[in-house]
Automatic annotation (TrEMBL):
Record-linked InterPro entries: NDK-like_dom (IPR034907), NDK-like_dom_sf (IPR036850), Nucleoside_diP_kinase (IPR001564), Nucleoside_diP_kinase_AS (IPR023005)
Entry similarity comment: Belongs to the NDK family.
EC numbers, comma separated: 2.7.4.6
Keyword S-adenosyl-L-methionine found: no
UniProt name for this protein: Nucleoside diphosphate kinase
Species annotation: Paenibacillus macquariensis
Role summary: Major role in the synthesis of nucleoside triphosphates other than ATP. The ATP gamma phosphate is transferred to the NDP beta phosphate via a ping-pong mechanism, using a phosphorylated active-site intermediate.
CDD domains with a match to the protein in the record: NDPk_I
Major subcellular site: cytoplasm
Length: 158
């Protein structure tokens, strides 16, 4: 019989999550962080930062060339953000469900965007979409030593 409490995770991932300037300005930092804590994920790094233009261009490199690229850069540098690294099983895909769809008209109630966002570009939260972008985005905002490794005793129940 499989001992569920002792099961080693083969799906542990890290992801980069960012409360965007609209989330900070609207006073939603705490409620957004709560969504990921409630899901059982572990916060391993967190800081309030003013994104530089260079960081913004690296962060949104996949959108370089699109007509909304400059708006994206302007928006993400328009005020402070909360940059975070979170850890958890399959967190890259699962945190995007917590975030909700990019287009706020399609974001489900219960998701961050579904509950709090009213206009698509201002959709409050960013989450990495793949292990590769997660690595690149974390490295764009954090040094290795800023990521803290720790276990929570509750982990085996999640
Ligand atoms: P995601 O944030 O859900 O991962 P991406 O496709 O990576 O979505 O887009 C990054 C951000 O760019 C979105 O969160 C949104 O703010 C903005 N964005 C995406 N598509 C459009 C668009 O067609 N017009 C304007 N802004 C867009």
């Amino acid at each position: 019989m499989i001992d569920l409490l002792e099961m080693e995770s083969e799906h542990m991932e890290r992801t980069f999550l960012m409360v965007k300037p609209d989330g900070v300005q609207r006073g939603l930092i705490g409620r957004i962080i709560s969504r990921f804590e409630d899901k059982g994920f572990t916060l391993v790094a967190c800081k309030v930062v003013q994104v530089t233009e260079n960081q913004a261009k690296i962060h949104y490199a996949e959108h370089d060339g699109k007509d909304f690229f400059l708006n994206l850069v302007n928006f993400i540098t328009s005020g402070p953000v909360v940059a975070m690294v979170w850890e958890g099983d399959d967190i890259i895909a699962l945190s995007r469900v917590v975030n909700g769809k990019t287009n706020v008209n399609e974001a489900q109630p219960g998701s961050i965007r579904g509950d709090f966002a009213a206009h698509t570009p201002k959709n409050l939260i960013h989450g990495s979409d793949s292990p590769e972008s997660s690595k690149r985005e974390i490295a764009n905002f954090f040094e290795d030593h800023e990521l803290v490794k720790y276990d929570k005793t509750i982990s085996s129940w999640i």
